[in-house]
Design a protein that fits this description.
With about 300 residues, the chain is an alpha/beta fold. It has 13 helices and eight strands. α8 (about 220-225) packs across α9.
Amino acid sequence: MLEGAKPLDVGIPSQVFTTRPSMPYEVRVCAAARGLVAGGDGLSYHLEHGLEALAWADTVFLPGYRFPDRDDPPAAVVDALRAAHARGARLAAISTGAFALAATGLLDGRRATTHWHYTRALAARHPQVRVDENVLFVDEGSVLTSAGAASGIDLCLHLLRGDLGVAASNHAARRLVAAPYRSGGQAQYVPRSVPEPLGERFAATREWVLHHLTDDLTLEVLARHAAVSPRTFSRRFADDTGYTPMAWVLRARVDVARELLERSERSVEQIAADVGLGTGANLRGHFRRILGTTPSEYRQTFARGE
């Protein structure tokens, strides 16, 4: 972490990738040097680890910090981040931590995001970075960035889902009382002059869908459940989730199929029927398009005990 580190940004990765028997992670918090680090919002941190921790880390998080547009991080920090990335570590920035990541040059020519209040400053300070101000997080493979602190949870769950599978990610989301899946493409800030009180109604519809995946779920059926017009439902649903309603339903079906592949012995054909995708061929096609793999390969990777 850097001087002025924001407490929530520091705590999110520690909470998601918690060191416990069910999670194969060891979490360490480090700074440019061991000792006391002044944080933001009136807090300070006494850290046991310096930059030597980056020599073994597989994933390095850069929490947001105050006044990121004033000065670049210390040269030793930039060098250590570059070295970690060069040996294969992935670097993930939460909120204004994107400024520190951009200072390494590793975001040049890539998409990235940060808190909406700082997107223009990031673009001005690092013009080679393709700043996207309208998303919750951006995954560029070995370098990842997220918007405000809450979207750091989405980014962490996204990484956890890739590491351990959807069941582990959903378990962590339930533990954190967080949404199990929000698209990285979801808008981080949608200004409205008059708030539309549909959030709870739409959330209830999404929850209802998860219990009716085998039904014939059309746009009209979903809009009727939310008690709004199909046009209003489509527009607001995309604002809330980053997906069209039907694309979200498909993702939900695939995610439930992933969990069944991880946690049950049911065949691909049975699982396809369980989640409303009809046939195994249909499930395989959607798996290949969305996840770039097959159900069988996914099961071999993430099945419990393997």
